[in-house]
Design brief:
binds adenine
Length: about 250
């Protein structure tokens, strides 16, 4: 199983929990380990669709990954999705793909597809792990403290499932996020990698699932507290979801 994240803080929190050996390939370090009886390879994709796509291809071709799971942060595109909430992707779309008039807007040329679906059973496992962690956070005062510091009520955090958009742009303007929402009304969140990972996994027939913690509202204040939120909340929380996901596998 392959584990991917885009930001160094997110991957570090995962690596801290396993005793992994590094293997350098190109400009990526792939960390291989046995984690609670599961063979895993964890890697920092870096940010953006190309970085995520090439990393995914290496995971599959070089490391023989048969499942890929991505964890990271995203900006919200829906009023019901708040900072601190968790979104499990059911489908992914590249919001910056536009080969019109040769192909319909958003369609990935020569695939007949705009959206890539995530794997249902892998996503269900991820959802179970995320929901277990959510209950723990609600019950754990120490973790509450972190959330509260950032003005997020831990008791209010929710789990969502749905469409996530990806593109090579950090969305930090209310105008752009409203346009994205207007064009894709069912979109819950926006980030910069997973639709590309999903496309590569689809090319190779490899199951893919993704979990994103909402770090901002993809508007004019998106940059505020972004680093702090990742460091103190999203990275440890995301790693906890992944650890719970792996642990659940090892006991079933
Ligand atoms: N990842 C986290 N927040 C994001 C945003 N606002 N835009 C794109 N990617 C993100």
């Amino acid at each position: 199983m392959a584990l991917m994240s885009a930001m160094p803080q997110e991957l570090s929190c995962i690596l801290e929990r396993l005793d992994a050996k590094p293997l350098q390939l190109g400009s990526r370090t792939y960390w291989q380990a046995q984690w609670m009886g599961q063979s895993v390879v964890a890697v920092l994709s870096r940010i953006g669709k190309v970085a995520a796509a090439t990393t995914t291809a290496s995971l599959i071709e070089h490391f023989g990954a048969t499942q890929v799971v991505f964890s990271g942060v995203a900006g919200s595109l829906d009023q019901r999705v708040q900072v601190g909430d968790v979104v499990i992707a059911t489908e992914l779309l590249q919001h910056d793909m536009d080969a019109s008039p040769l192909f319909p807007r958003y369609e990935i040329p020569l695939t007949n597809k705009s959206c890539f679906l995530t794997d249902q059973s892998l996503s269900l496992e991820l959802k179970r792990a995320a929901s277990q962690c959510l209950q723990e956070v609600r019950a754990n005062m120490q973790l509450h403290g972190l959330w509260d510091q950032l003005g997020v009520q831990a008791k209010d955090i929710c789990l969502h499932e749905g469409l996530i958009l990806s593109g090579d742009q950090f969305i930090s303007s209310a105008k752009i996020s409203s346009e994205l929402k207007l064009n894709q009304p069912s979109a819950l969140a926006v980030e910069m990698e997973c639709a590309a990972v999903a496309q590569v996994c689809d090319d190779f027939g490899v199951p893919f699932a993704a979990v994103r913690i909402i770090s901002d509202n993809a508007n004019d204040s998106a940059h505020m507290d972004f680093e702090k939120f990742i460091q103190t909340v999203a990275a440890p929380y995301g790693a906890h979801v992944i650890e719970t996901f792996v642990k659940n596998r090892s006991i079933t």
